[in-house]
Amino acid sequence: MDLQIFIAFFIILRLRKKFKTKTAFPQWEKILLGLMFVCIALFTVQASFNFLKPLSGWIANGVVAVVLGIIYLNDEFSSERPTMFAVLPLILVSFVEDVFKLISISFYNKIHYFFEAASFFAFIWMIALLIINNKQRKALIKEQSKTHEEEQKNKFMASMKAQLEIQVAERTAELTSQKETLEEALTELKTTQAQLIQSEKLASLGELTAGIAHEIQNPLNFINNFSEVNTELIEEMKEAIAKGDSEEVLAIAADIAANEQKINHHGKRADSIVKGMLQHSRNSNGIKEPTDINKLADEYLRLAYHGLRAKDKSFNAAMKTDFDRYIPPINVIPQDIGRVILNLITNAFYAASQPSALPDNTVAANHKTPTVWVTTALIPPTEDEGTLVSLTVRDNGPGIPANIMDKIFQPFFTTKPTGQGTGLGLSMSYDIITKGHGGQLTVHTSEGTGTEFTILLPA
Amino acid sequence: MKILVVDDERDIQTLFEQRFRKEIKDKSLEFVFAFSGEDALIYLNQHEHEAVLILSDINMPGMSGLELLGHIKQKYHKPPPMVMMITAYGDAENFNMAKQLGADDFLTKPVDFTLLKEKFKLIY
């Protein structure tokens, strides 16, 4: 029995199976199939005709050489080379053995133990190498399956990622549209706020108008009166001239001149009141200028008082002022601070004329005269702050109930009946003082006694 | 006849002195001026019974004309002088309050000096 035939046969079988030569390499399939038949033929010959054994052995050697050559020379079968190296020693030993047999069978018989041993080692070598190869192959398969798994995983992740990206895009589009809607709403709100601020200004202008009318009435009365007096004086002057009393003429002329000055003075006074009114209604130019806070407070106190008086003839309240004469001019936006003062004073008059929270039969309730105090003071610098100017507006109204104290500076909060207050007065005042001037606006109240608002401004 | 005029507008003095210069010249009328309710009371305390007639504005800073009227008619001066109230607001409440406190007359601004002169004539 020749080992070469078996080995050749199995290697061919393996090649055909492993590389699917039937479909992948049809040109090799023919050759391999042919070689296989040769192997079978040799096998049959060897089994049947003993005398043909040496010849068939040589043909088998040839077949093996061809098979190994095919593996060695063709790259497509390179993965089968380890198998080739596994069988090669055994093949070589057989080959050398056959050569020796051919040359001298007697010499071969002498050393055939050596060949048996070599065959044995070659066989061991083949088995060991095949096992190792097999192991390596399995490891390779494992590795491949692992790689494959990873590829699958990666593919899965990629598809998940794509899905996520689609979702993110959808959400982003949703959010963008929401953002746009919100931005539109914000713009609308800002416009509305601007309109409300304007209407609050107009409302306070309405409060002022009556006061302004009263304030203008006084200088106008003087202008009319003095001009009437001058008409009379001119008549008298004519008489004096007719009499030739030049001393009297000069005296009358001096009076007329003095009266003209008065007329001029009161004309200017009315003018400045109108200008103040225009300034109040105009949009604030936002320019700070040195301002006499006492004068500003006094002006707006009068305007507020007369405004309320004109609106409600039965309104009567006492005003008490205590101005610190040593306050230097401070840098403020006069229209804005004027608006705050007007707002606080109007509120104070409104509160002071509210019915007392005390029971009607108490002495305090019966003897309360609605009163508003306006006080200014210069506060010396401390470690934390520089010199401050304080302006306090106090009333003896019913006070602010504790449950609404934290709401009074909120926009649109009002205790007045619907339509009578915009609810923007205090919130606007708060913004003007804190944001516009870096000052503070605080409130102290005690129910039944009154309320006190204090503006603190840096001097 | 001595008349005390109480008003926080200082130019009222010039105006009255011009308007009544003939009467002042022939000394049929004599005017004194106070620019607040408090000043008026101080003057009245110092010169008791000198002023026969008091002309007072109602709306003044500090003591109002009505408070002054109350002081004059209820607490001081027996017999008290005549008091005429002048106000820019011809409202019923002020009028009633003034009458209730004993005001002898009630005028509204702007003052009609011809009318005022006639009223003075009736008194002296």
Number of helices of chain B: 6
- What percent strand of chain A? 5-15%
Q: Regarding quaternary structure, how should these chains be classified?
A: heterodimer
Portion of residues in helices of chain B?
40-55%
Question: Topology, please?
Answer:
The complex is a heterodimer of chains A (459) and B (124).
Chain A: H1 3-19, H2 26-48, H3 53-73, H4 81-103, H5 105-243, H6 246-281, E1 289-291, H7 293-311, E2 318-322, E3 330-332, H8 334-352, H9 363-366, E4 371-379, E5 388-395, H10 425-437, E6 440-446, E7 450-458
Parallel strand pairs in A: 2-4
Antiparallel strand pairs in A: 1-3, 4-5, 5-7, 6-7
Helix pairs in contact in A: 1-2, 1-3, 1-4, 2-3, 3-4, 4-5, 5-6, 5-7, 7-8, 8-10
Chain B: E1 2-6, H1 11-19, H2 21-25, E2 30-34, H3 37-46, E3 53-57, H4 65-75, E4 82-87, H5 92-100, E5 105-108, H6 113-123
Parallel strand pairs in B: 1-2, 1-3, 3-4, 4-5
Helix pairs in contact in B: 3-4
Q: Would you give an account of this structure?
A:
The complex is a heterodimer of chains A (459) and B (124). By secondary structure, chain A is of the alpha+beta class. Chain A folds into two domains: 3-156, no CATH class; 201-458, Histidine kinase-like ATPase, C-terminal domain (Heat Shock Protein 90). Chain A has ten helices and seven strands. In chain A, the strands form two sheets. A five-stranded mixed beta sheet of chain A has the order 2-4-5-7-6, with helices on one face. A two-stranded antiparallel sheet of chain A has the order 1-3. In chain A, helix 1 runs parallel beside helix 3 and helix 8 runs antiparallel to helix 10 (425-437). Chain A is rod-shaped. By secondary structure, chain B is an alpha/beta fold. Chain B has one domain (2-123): 3-Layer(aba) Sandwich (Rossmann fold), CATH 3.40.50. Chain B is 44% helix and 20% strand. Chain B has a five-stranded parallel beta sheet with strand order 2-1-3-4-5, with helices on both faces. In chain B, strand 4, helix 5 and strand 5 form a beta-alpha-beta unit. In chain B, helix 3 runs parallel beside helix 4 (65-75). The longest helix of chain B is centred in the middle third of the chain and has 11 residues, at 65-75. Chain B is globular and about 35 Å long. The model of chain B has no long low-confidence stretch (mean pLDDT 85).
